[in-house]
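Input sequence (916 aa), recorded before submission:
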Amino acid sequence: MDSPSKGPPVAPFILFGVVMALASLPFLSALPSFQVRSEMTDLLAGDQRSLSSFKDANNQLTNTIGGQSAVVLVSIRSENIFSPKIIAEIEKITTALMASSNIVHNFSLVGPRINPSFKIDPTLLNLTLQSRISANNLALIGHGDFNGTRSSLGSLVHAVATVGPALIRDTHQFKSPELSAVQKALIRARVISKQAQLAGAALSLAHHATNEWSRFKEYNIKPFIPLAQWTKTALNREANATALAMDDIRQKIKMEIAAVKQIEKTYGRPIFRFVFTSIFPKPIAQLSPDEINNIREWATQFPFFRNLIVDGQGRNAMIFAFARKGPTNRVAKATFCRDINERLQPFRDAGYDIRVLSFSHGEIETMEYLEQDLKRFAPAMFGIVFIVLLITFRGSLRLVLFVMGLQMAGIALALGLAPSMGSHVSPFTAPLFPLLAGIHLTLLIHVGTALQTALRSGHSGNNALSAMLGRIFQPSAYAALTTCVGLFSLTFSEVRPTAEFGRLGAAGIGLLFALTFGPGIVLLKLLGGLHPLPQRKTDNTTQWLESLPMKLAGKRIAILAATVITLVVIIAGLQKIRTDIRIVEFLNPQSNTRLSLESLDQSYGGINFAKLEIDTGKNGGVRSREFFGLVNHLHRFASKQSGVSMTYSLGGLIRASDEIIQRDLPRLAALTPASLRASIMLDQFDQPEVRNDLPLLDSLYNRTRQKGWFVIRTQDLPSSEYIAMLKAIETEARQVAPEDWEVSMRGPIQAIQKADRQIVESQKNSALFTTILIALVLAVLWRSAPLALLAFMANIIPVGLVVAVQGLADVPLNSITIMVAAIAFGVAVDDTIHFITHWQLERKRGADTREAVLRTLRVKATPIISTTVILMAVMGIFSMASFPPVVAFGWLSAIGYLAALTSALILIPAALCWRK
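Predicted structure, token format:
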């Protein structure tokens, strides 16, 4: 019979195991709810540039098509997009997409409503002119009673012609002295009669002339009296006289415009219409090469076509296909994507280079990659477990079954934990489950090796379990606590996926620890076979590890020099740490979504859109001359900035539309001022059918026209260059804009700066929280500040080295890589805890400092090396991941664990040997 163990009694652990098994049932019952999910908001959680573009695109679709709409971008590449063959294929692709019951609208090079033009309704124009002429008393301008005038004048002329000669003759005859009195009386009577005839004709003409003059004053002079008054006021030398005159004119113009709008409202149609037709006036096969070249030149230069539906070189064409209702769950998204892909596959089979990009495609592809990763992780993890068990527990089938059983139970509980906590697997949380399995495996290795040590010491049955618990429970509890601290520190991150990773990880570690020392002890009891084992002979490896600290103890200067060199490397690497969170950095380099994004970025002038908000402070302010002057100035300024490929604004749209008016209605353009043409165009842009064909409008100004936006398009730049460019444009806008206007690019700049700040602050906060709490835990565990400081310094150096390597390797801080330092520190310190705790135990048993180190190495070297190899192998699994940040997370963590192993087996033993 073996001597009683000094370890804790086994019965409480058995009872706890039963309770824990029952408590685990809810987590296991939640296992069927486990799901892999990747929403676009998850993918863009760190990429504030793309997230703001995503939200803006959603808002535009909501305003134009509906709240649940979705858009699919289909890009086709060819050496000459405008060749008849390619145009015909684009028509076929568009037809194939429109055949889908969910696709309700498209916008492409071959669309029937793509070419903007201005048309006049001649009938309504004539009615409007007649109405306004009549209302302003202009109908009778130039009109008179010309027939009456002609008749009166004719009567007078006729009277003169017929009566005049006789009157002259009678007048001369009347003067003759030879006439008698009677004859003179008769002649006088004839003269008077003829004079009366002439006078009557003259009076009739005079009366008619008087009437015509009155009519002329009423209908030809009176309408122009206000103009005369405005002119008089304008010429007045009094202050503000000209302004008052112009004010009156503006009011009159506004009244006339309002009256015209009322007429348009009455008849239900506008006089001037902004319409869209096909860009091709006739079938492409019937167009001459010159006509095709003219269309190509116009389409590749028109600012609201270029880099939207066709690139500037005419080698890429984009089809925007709008779905009435976007899919909302995975099955619907998969069906939607499959439908689109099947419609495009015949064209791909024919050899055409086609790229597809949509939110649903990105989400489904990411989920598929996640599932593939998990399927690869599982057998790789099984292989690691199998190899470790063969090496560590060769000859002990029961311990192999124990570890395998606990590993499977632990994985099941971890997977069930996610839905129980309202979480799901995303690209950010997927690495957590192999990590938890690896940490759990290291804990099981410590338990198994401690049990073997107890059995080789002559213990059996409950005494062996008690001895094992006495050796391993306390350091394992503190090791689990430090790992929990490292993971829990991530919950303080403002980056949602990082906080979720930390929350799930901390809960998972606690659950796995409880599983190991609860149901795990019950399983060991049930497996039986707890009989004493023969002592293992000291092998060459153990002898080498025992002699190593003695050799290093005399080389203090060399160790200190190596430490100083490491610190220099750490400082140099920390200077190169950068934050750069872009969605393309998260995606598999071979994924269709990433390739499509990169193609879009390179071919169409960039995937990033930033908006400078200009608040004029009053409704209709964007119609002012000052607003157009500002945005036109910004167009010129932004075009000189490095990285800017395109700019969009209401001013640019008006300018482009004015070119269309001058092309389609040259006489109207010549007769109307630019301000009036701009007003006509703005009114046209408010027409529902125009907004449907130009969804970009909602990104240029709001419905009240108080705010306008200057949109900058850039290629995928590093965040530092991107922010510098945006700040330069914002500063220029503030200097040019009126003082009472608000000009701000705070949204884009602050979003990126906030994301970078969140990453940096998360790194600082998690590191600070982890180091302080772990230092306190170690001080409480060993009741020795020097030992706690030694352990702290021995592990902070490897973690600092990891961060430095990250900077030197140009791996940016992002939502995943910021977790490396906190997790590496929390996990790496576990080996130190096991080593120093056992060293203290040997010291209590009477061994001196060096002998305690040797005994500790005999017992702990193998499990420490095994657990480190396990963790490094688990991190190596991440090299198979589809997401670059996960790959970086893996190899950076592996470097940290290797450095921690070196510290635990070389630096700490040497430092302990130096203790007096």
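Checked by second reader. The chain has a mean pLDDT of 79.
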